[in-house]
Predict the structure.
Amino acid sequence: MRGPFASLRRIWAVVLKEAVQMRRDRITFAMMFGIPVMQLILFGYAINLNPKHLPAALVVEEQTPIVRTLVSALKSSEYYDFVMQESDPRKSGDLLARGEVAFVVTIPSGFTRDLVRGDHPQILIEADASDPAAASGAVGNAQAILTYALRHDLKGPLASLADKGPPFDLVIHQMYNPEAKTSYNVVPGLLGVILTMTLVMITAMAMTRETEQGTLENLLAMPAKPAEVMLGKILPYVAVGAAETAVILITARLIFDVPFVGALWLLLLGVAIFVVANLALGFTFSTIARSQMQAMQLTFFFFLPSILLSGFMFPFRGMPEWAQTIGEMLPLTHFLRIVRGVMLKDTSFSQLQQPLLALCAFTGVVMVIALLRYRRTLD
Amino acid sequence: MDAGLAIDVHGLVKRFGSKTAVDGVDIQMPRGEVWGFLGPNGSGKTTTIRMICGLLRVTEGEGQCLGYDIQREAARIKSETGYMTQKFSFWSDMTIRENIEFVSRLYGLPHMRRTVDETLEKLGLAHRQHQLAGALSGGWKQRLALAAVTMHKPQLLLLDEPTAGVDPQARRDFWDEIHELSLTGMTVLVSTHYMDEAERCDRIVYLAHGHKIVEGTVPEVIEKSHLATFRGEGAGVRQLAHALKGQPGLDSVAYFGSALHVSGRDAARIRSVLDQNSSGDVTWKEVRPSLEDAFISLMSEAGEDAREYT
């Protein structure tokens, strides 16, 4: 073929061929059209940059009309969801450490008396600043909310108090991260994100590569059991995960100056379970995908919610309930609780039992699926 | 079941969805023999071999391989058979030595280092052992694969078109090796498209459309085809071929080198067709049908293959 249109014709021939092949690959097709729409809706509703309804604990040592006014003002601001009323400050501290509440609001006894006297009593808000973004809205607006609420109560004999600015002192403790550095939150989280991405992807490729290159038939013809192949394929990457962890932790310390206040062994335990969970998941993907391309797509299909719904980028508690439920199913969500807890909060083993168990359960379920899906035959 | 049989399967059926790839194949193969597995592309040879060594589940039928049940004891069959796949299925991104080492570890062979060294030496690849397997030529790949699947001294060797795309000398060498292995008592089932290879087998099994059409020694198979074959030579043979194809009474019209072979069931009828289409300088002579004549005729009898492959 010659002439000016010959090249166009050949381009067209390639276009048609690509279109035919694209249509043949169902998973790719779904990835291109169905899944983006799903993700758009999912993440559009789930992600909230100004999180409200964050769980908070209330420590109130007296009940007076003024205290009730202040508490109801915080409630109606929608930033604070008082999920528990606590009288023991030690217990409330534990709730904060475990991440069950994002704030503890304390109004001490004698508050009303001191307020009326003009002694400027303190209201204490302890915020879990390990995620500064989550805390910022609620903390930043607290002063205005409380001052505004008191205006109605400061009438008659108390009117004079209202003119001299807020009649109380709002004390805010940014717990675990007093300078509210986002890197303290992001860098430990990145450990989880990087492990998720690399490990799931590598293992997802592992089995599909055998299928694609025709070596699977050979492997199946030799006397290796599914569990043996799975463990054999996963173990080398455990070492890769360990090396990655070391690099990230050292970088976090040397370059980002992230504190490490907790127990190293506890973090390593969490990392170990998390690494195995991701490898098992990757292996499961590789038993589902028919090509390396599909394995890659499945990995990204999993990776996106892991980043967006786990609490890595956006405050977990700020998401709607249903999005939190999805988030709870992702291993990264639980790992973030462990890594941030240990590094920033010195969370103890007993406080981390829940996320550790969740990771174990995830690993177990995924491994069973992988073994069931592993093809012993070529059928 | 007969203990002297390496393969003893009855009524093997394999369906993929609604497609039947293998439809009721029986094979009773004694230990120590070399059998050829023949048939057109897609006749079910590969599927049958895969069912025998436990790589595919059997839809219907039953049987034993080396005395083990092919459905329940696939793991034991795998450890005592060597299966060489049609497509080179060793790891191209590993060196020759690494491939051999991997196989010997998987089978738990004793004295691994020595075994691997010996295997490489015997294979004649000791000096290239650190090259990637993917860099080998087709013939060497096949020899590497054969060495790898026989390292654990299997009782049964299943070879699926081992010499496809291999040059004639390499094919000859490959077959010499097969016969050597057979002398050690190994049972060998080999699928092939080459007649010269089929003639080196003790017995041949011919499949078409998933059915076993014929089985026997080479003379038996030729005998069973009940063919009469005429060989025509001369300058005008090419023009004649076109005219003869499709004539009633002729099962096949095919070239053998520069000569034309015409086969059919009835010698007299062929003769009359040839007389009607005579051409001055072509001389016809009745010859003993070869195995290839028999197969071409079997193939045309079986009709067109209607199955699909994925």
In short: The two ends of chain B are 35 Å apart (CA to CA).
